[in-house]
Amino acid sequence: MAPIVPTFRRxxxxxxxxxxxxxxxxxxxxxxxxxxxxxxxxxxxxNARRIPGVRDSKTLSAAQREALVPQIRRRAAAxxxxxxxxxxxxxxxxxxxxxLAMRRALARLGGHDHVLVDGLRIAGFEEQVGPYDAIVDGxxxxxxxxxxxxxxxxxxxxxxxxxxARHPGYGWARNAGYAPAEHxxxx
Length: 187
Fold this sequence. Notes:
The chain has nine helices and five strands, in the order H-E-E-H-E-H-H-E-H-E-H-H-H-H. It is an alpha/beta fold.
């Protein structure tokens, strides 16, 4: 089955309504057994052209994601990265730490008019970031969210590769902390 190709349908409706700085937001690192949660927020110019190959980061190889990130950064009006550390995850829980990472990514954009976020509605999020829409499978369906998913995945994978060099034996350069049998055995 061919992967779903995300569209600008949501962004176009917002652009027509006057929301020019539409931010797509996604996170990576909720399921792994170790490492931070990383979020990316991406704003594209209204009526931007698609970058061939951009789709949900989970459907792309590491090499494809790495090749797309510089293109996304060049074409974007703004890119913000936010993270929540392992200590913050332990203190807040993964749900709240994920939303903290998203808010940090959005804060690094220099302003936005509307947010499109992958997933379900988030309690109290609108009060903190302004108007937003939560879209289940947004990383597969919405182009700016797909761009954010690619950026977030590459940033987190690079971080886990650097951590693997400092803490060998867990295979983080290969498994990014997602706890396959190799990682569980090392623990």
